[in-house]
Amino acid sequence: MLIIKDIYNLNTYLKAFKDKGYSIGYVPTMGALHEGHGSLIEKSQNDNQKTIISIFINEKQFDDTQDFEAYPRNKGDDYNFCEKHNVDIIFEPSAEEIYPKEYKSVQNSHFQNILCDEYRPGHFNGVVTVLSRLFSIIESDKVYFGEKDFQQLKIVENLIKDNFPNLKLVAIPTVRSNEGIALSSRNKKLSKKQKSDFISFQKEVIQFISHLDKKIDLIEANKKAEEFIKSYKKFDYFEFRNSSNLNLEGSLGEARLFYAIYKS
Ligand code: PAF
């Protein structure tokens, strides 16, 4: 496994792979790797001859400096994780390498002012800015994203459609812990109590959904969602949205539940 920190060296290896006709799968990450990332890596390995993963904590997508500083970092574990999963290249660039002075930020123009975009202003501009740069550097055949960050996935789908016609996006279902919560790097920051509260909340959510008729429309479903969430104090959004276009039309059967709650 190679750990490469600069674009010049990366290009040398990628060119050698491409000259041999190898297909390249790419998994972008911010580190603190877990089995959710593992499932993306595995799928890439099944589909391609070589798999590259990037580890870059992108400050531009954090709306709060403290949140950026507190983001989990565990390099040694990440290297072991990649070794165990037979990754071919880890690309771990510095901020200077990714953002040379002349590099211009990219603006996201899709799925704006809803869900995370409403509550984390500028977040998705940061995401599309770093991904535009990384996609242009790596020029892989395929790129792998989890469905866990579903709004991000839909935005990336559009970014690729608009700007990277040769890149194929592969979406992978969310990996959950035995207790049913989605694996996430940020969960590493939860205390035992916060984790068990979250697991109980998740069970109540599943129970709530199981009692809903999948044929009701999203207006009715969201009235029930509003009623359900009333007793929980700290949340940004808790709503059903259509899976294909993230709008509030259609039946519950075509929707996903999106929510952001705070740890207390
Ligand atoms: O989902 C993430 O980890 C990040 O948003 C990504 C896609 C690696 C861009 O920094």
Structural account:
The protein is α/β, with parallel strands linked by helices. 42% of the residues lie in helices and 16% in strands. The chain has ten helices and eight strands. The strands form two sheets. A six-stranded parallel beta sheet has the order 1-4-3-2-5-6, sandwiched between helices. Strands 7-8 form a two-stranded antiparallel sheet. Helix 7 (123-138) packs across helix 8 (150-163). The longest helix is centred in the last third of the chain and has 19 residues, at 192-210. The chain is globular, with a radius of gyration of 19 Å. The mean pLDDT is 96. Pantoate binds at residues 28-30, 58, 61, 127, 130-131, 149, 152.
Q: Give the CA-based shape.
A: globular
Which ligands are bound?
A: pantoate
Order of SSEs: EHEHEHHEHHHEHEHHEE
Taking the alpha carbons of the first and last residues, their distance comes to 41 Å
Strand element count:
8
Beta-strand content bin: 15-25%
Give me the secondary-structure category: alpha/beta
Specify the helix fraction band.
Answer: 40-55%
User: Taking strands numbered 1, 2, ... along the chain, how are they ordered across the largest sheet?
Assistant: 1-4-3-2-5-6
Biggest sheet, open or closed, and with what strands and sense?
6 strands, parallel
Give the low-confidence spans: none
Write down the overall mean pLDDT: 96
Rg of Cα set: 19 Å
**How many helices?**
10
